[in-house]
């Protein structure tokens, strides 16, 4: 892949908005585990290898188990995730694949399980990682082997 622009250098103002978004998310009630699951699953769906690698490493550092990280691609077929996490993962998939729409069933289940405010914060976190994924993919960011 060819070298492409570094967004933080080329458009620091726009990049700064993304950083401010992350600061907002850090101030929310969202747990680290929930944020990590959102970031990894959305990045998998979007095919952003840089973000999958980065956020899987962050999740491990925060204490996430390897087995759960590996199972995210097939989370519906495992007993590894709580009801809250399943609601978050379903919403992550539907917001990320927005062209298919967010179903009333998924949205209503999230609100029933998580509450309206937490669900809104989850949606904001999903929007943020989708933005980062698009930056990573558009600029050919790649993970490094280490």
Automatic annotation (TrEMBL):
Highest taxon listed in the record's lineage: Bacteria
InterPro entries named among the record's database cross-references: AhpD-like, AhpD_core, CMD-like
Keyword hit for Ligase: no
Keyword Coiled coil annotated: no
Listed GO MF terms: peroxiredoxin activity
Carboxymuconolactone decarboxylase-like domain residues: 15-94
Keywords, ordered alphabetically: Oxidoreductase, Peroxidase
Gene3D superfamilies registered for this protein in UniProt: AhpD-like
PANTHER family: 4-CARBOXYMUCONOLACTONE DECARBOXYLASE FAMILY PROTEIN (AFU_ORTHOLOGUE AFUA_6G11590) (PTHR34846), CYTOPLASMIC PROTEIN (PTHR34846:SF10)
Name assigned to this protein: Alkylhydroperoxidase AhpD family core domain-containing protein
């Amino acid at each position: 892949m060819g070298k492409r622009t570094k967004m933080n250098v080329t458009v620091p103002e726009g990049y700064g908005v993304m950083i401010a978004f992350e600061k907002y998310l850090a101030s929310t009630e969202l747990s680290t585990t929930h944020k990590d699951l959102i970031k990894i699953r959305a990045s998998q769906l979007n095919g952003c290898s840089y973000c999958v690698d980065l956020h899987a490493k962050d999740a491990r550092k925060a204490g996430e188990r390897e087995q759960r990280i590996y199972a995210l691609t097939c989370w519906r077929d495992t007993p590894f995730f709580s009801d809250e996490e399943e609601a978050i993962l379903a919403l992550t998939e539907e917001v990320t694949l927005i062209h298919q729409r967010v179903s009333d069933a998924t949205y209503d289940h999230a609100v029933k399980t998580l509450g309206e405010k937490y669900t809104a914060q989850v949606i904001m976190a999903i929007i943020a990682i989708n933005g980062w994924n698009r930056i990573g993919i558009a600029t050919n960011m790649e993970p490094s082997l280490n």
